[in-house]
Design a protein that fits this description.
The chain is mainly alpha-helical and 78 residues long. It has a two-stranded antiparallel sheet. Helix 1 packs across helix 2. It starts with 8 loop residues before the first helix and ends in an 11-residue tail after the last helix.
């Protein structure tokens, strides 16, 4: 099996069909943790499988947090 290649910021944006600024935002916000990419100078390189895993984990965390929010109850007349 061939080793997975590292992709550029542009290739990651194209893969997810988002803008470059969205991918940069994911990196800044920590949606893609620093241990999931390589940065040399101003150049980023990503393994798409690691980006997928990071984004899926973030999505699952958000979903479980939404499930923990109690439902609003209507005011009761006293």
């Amino acid at each position: 099996m061939a080793e997975e290649k590292y992709l550029t910021l542009e290739q990651v944006a194209q893969h997810y069909q988002v803008s470059l600024s969205t991918v940069r935002s994911w990196v800044r916000m920590g949606a893609i943790p620093a241990d999931k990419y390589i940065k040399v100078g101003k150049t980023f390189r990503f393994k798409i499988s690691e980006v997928d895993a990071a984004l899926r984990a973030l999505n699952q965390a958000k979903q479980s947090k939404l499930m923990d929010i109690p439902e609003a109850t209507p005011d009761q007349d006293m």
